[in-house]
Design brief:
Elements: E1 4-12, E2 18-26, E3 29-31, E4 45-50
Antiparallel strand pairs: 1-2, 1-4, 2-3
Bound molecules: zinc ion (ZN).
Length: about 50
């Protein structure tokens, strides 16, 4: 199986903190291992995929 590596930009909609993480695409879903923002927000994010 080919591993699809992607870079993902995550912006917290609560505090505005930005994270750039590397993840991999698996069955159409991107897994970055990102769990929560520093402000404890867990589900209000703007997520953008970037080309590697
Ligand atoms: Zn936050």
């Amino acid at each position: 199986m080919v591993e699809n590596r992607v870079k993902v930009k995550i912006r917290c909609n609560v505090c505005g903190e930005k994270f750039v993480l590397r993840g991999k695409r698996d069955h159409g879903k991107v897994d970055t291992g990102f769990k929560m923002c520093l402000c404890n927000n867990v589900n209000d994010f703007e997520i953008e995929e970037l080309p590697m």
